Amino acid sequence: MVEIEIEKAKKEANEAIKNLIKKGMLTEEHLKKQKKCTEELSKIRGEILHRSIETEMMLGSFLVTYFTYEPYDRDFEKTSNFMEIMNKMSFQRKIEIFKKIGFHNKKNFNEKYKDFEKILESIKESRNMIAHSIQMNFIRPVLGNRKKKIELNQDYLNKFHTKADLSMIVLDELISKLIEEKF
Hints:
Elements: H1 2-22, H2 28-68, H3 76-88, H4 91-101, H5 109-112, H6 116-131, E1 134-137, E2 142-144, E3 149-151, H7 154-182
Antiparallel strand pairs: 1-2, 2-3
């Protein structure tokens, strides 16, 4: 039933496009640009969502380690249960808990990681923008919602990757320091 409706909608859309081309209101060249833009936007969105999820999962791993790791008492059930709780929390909530713990502000970490909370927030904001926005322009990869518009170009993606890479390095290092401290 749903499959038939989708096919019907596709057929109607194709007919509408053909009519617009016939009337001179749309060109094949414009359609190619739209398709290329939409594909580029999808690729960039996918990369940002993927990297955001990686960062969120690593942050969850840090929190699980912080609350459950004991060097000589590996309670896998406790760890597993806590990880399940973490997976049900929003990225925002995990960031709030991370800030409250303040582990990254201890023992000379403060200077090295002083902007780390901002980086996490920036990754979360990019992820939310990507997930909750619509394509605003079909020639350039622009997303927007009621509050904001962004152009998802290579520069934006490179800056995002830099933040995501840094977040993974910092969280990995913090997990290592946390484990060292507990030994």
